[in-house]
Design brief:
With 353 residues, the protein is mostly helical. It has 2 domains: 17-207, Lysozyme, CATH 1.10.530.10; 256-313, no CATH class. Helices cover 41% and strands 4% of the residues. It is extended, with a radius of gyration of 34 Å. The model is unreliable at 10-15, 216-256 and 275-311 (pLDDT under 50).
Amino acid sequence: MFLFTTPQRSETTQTANPVVSAIRDGAQKTGAGFDYLLKTAQRESALTPDAKAKTSSATGLFQFIEQTWFSMVKQEGPKQGLQNYADAISDNGGRLTVSNPAMRDKILQLRNDPQVSAVMAGALTQKNRDQLASALGRQPQAGELYMAHVLGSRGASDLIKAASSDPSRVAARDFPEAAAANRGIFYDKAGRARSVQEVYGVLAASHATTQVAAGATQAAPAAGADADIPVTEIAAALRPGRAKGLIGLFSTGGSREPVSKAVANLWTTPSAAGVKLASLDAGERFFPRVKSDASGDAMTSSATNSSAAAVSAPLPPARPADLSLPEAAARSGTKARSGPLDLSSFMTRRGGA
């Protein structure tokens, strides 16, 4: 059982996946979110470095098409030690080309290198993020960044705006080339063309809770808001002040307070006004129990100091005599119990039976 213990890692788990390591390095070098890049690679190629699309020139871990790859190598190559490859790429009327066929093949072959591909994907993510933020007037969500990876930043911007202004519009009409290369996104299984709102949902689905930057970003809190709550939360229910009881179950430094005041009120002596209030006194967190002394006078616990009447609650059954301590058994001359516990000793008979 490993619920509260940490099992020893086997040799296979200690060895990092080289593809995942390459994605992590790419995220660190470019400032893009590792989680975002990992999910994008999983969706694009299932983490297969040499994956090849059947409907387009898309190749590699992040399925770069030729023109996008040439553009990224031209811009980012000098920063990553690929100056000679960047110099070989020229702009001919808006279309990037490589005159030397052998060099062209080498540049395109770099898409199958996880290290190079991850760095270019991280740089493209940051570029798309800036362009989308400028077009939308706000920071894009992770799913919207993935739309830019598939459609380009301008295409993603058009899709996002169309989903807001005309959600029922058929997306394939606005993106015919993308629809031809990605039928599973723009058409359902029955062949029906999806609307822009539906395509937005399909593209954003796998990145709904993904961190888009290398570090969690924080925004200025509103008046009265908790300044310690990050904008990007892994689980909103685990933020400070929430689910304290559950956190305490799996941590040693968690809060020992009740899960909520409502729960505490269930175990608190009612006030004189009849309103239950959470008490800070541990002795008042349980219903007062009533017991009788030898003379038959009723005595209440210290929790009944309130002016209100004590709440009547059933007491547990008396401890069976044969469960007394060995010392007491020796003094009374009875034999200590050695057999299994008879649970019927604790049962209360009803109806006089």
